[in-house]
């Protein structure tokens, strides 16, 4: 039990990577606060994990007071708070031509400013427990695809936030802050996005080798397995680190030009 008696808030955990992290946390002995906008999926997940292990909070994380309400619910339900996982994100296609300021601000509010606000709200309690923060970024933080402009910028900003606070909070408050950058992951929302682009539901079964050397893309459970290390005490004093989780080198790679029209997507 690598997370025995730990209490973890996981934003965006009604589906996808967040759901997989919540499930794995409970398997490892933690209590979790599930959060998101998908009410029915959240209720089903909380019921499956059991009321002794999981509570549910449905709310837009960018609303005034939402981070504080998440923290208070975790503390009131389980008695303390050991960790937060900033997983909630908007993954929306855009380029410089389709991105206006209102859209850009919304992406930054969800993907960058909401994690900051939740860290700030949770800090007094994390300090008490010498807890930790795990931010879920994206390999697109390094530059991103042309059609993931605003999303990529928001994840780049999150990466800098992680490195900065991973130093500051560790020295001043004893709170570690780290980040994992998933590559292309087969989530429910990724299937929905590709369906909206007109692809068949089984598009992921025949991907070009340049995108999926392993013959498939990543599963949410594989990201969750990596997340446990950063939430557990076994990661020791490590802080301010960003780890890419992809099946090929992301920086410096020079893939062939005749690739498929199936574009990669972010976390």
UniProtKB/TrEMBL annotation:
- Source lineage: Bacteria, Pseudomonadati, Bacteroidota, Cytophagia, Cytophagales
Its recorded name reads SDR family oxidoreductase
Alphabetized Pfam families for the sequence: adh_short_C2
- What InterPro entries does its record include? NAD(P)-bd_dom_sf, Sc_DH/Rdtase_CS, SDR_fam
Among CDD domains, the record links this protein to: SDR_c
